[in-house]
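[job 4471] stage=fold_predict status=RUNNING
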Amino acid sequence: KEQASSGSEWDSVSKLSKSNLGCKYVWSTVCPNSLCCSGFVSHTLKSSGVSVSRLKAAGFSQVSSWAKVSSISNLQKGDLVFFRSPSSSRVSHTGIYIGGGEFIHAASGKGKVVISDINSNYYTSNFVVGRRPNY
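[job 4471] inference complete, writing structure tokens
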């Protein structure tokens, strides 16, 4: 079942995720001053009260207790989004959808946590799945 988080829960997640904007990207890390994409998601979820193990992006995409969102057009604020690289079918990147066609993520290419347009050609071409955590 696809059920959105309540407004106050989403506000908390939104504030936590946006508080990391500009934080340095460092592969395979989750600490106050540097994050990788899955570290960013893990840190935000845990800080929002979601009990979750530290997983890679592909692992988060397989959490079956979270509702699956198959289309970008069905995403809701707070959903996790998962992407593959153009040369692979495996999930290799994750972020958090913040609404308005945008998601926040730790981007290796930018070297920091940024907000990106999920409707850009790159992300629409490489979108794999969304997951709706139980906030």
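[job 4471] summary: The beta strands are 24-25, 30-31, 34-35, 67-69, 80-84, 91-99, 102-107, 112-117, 127-132.
[job 4471] exit 0
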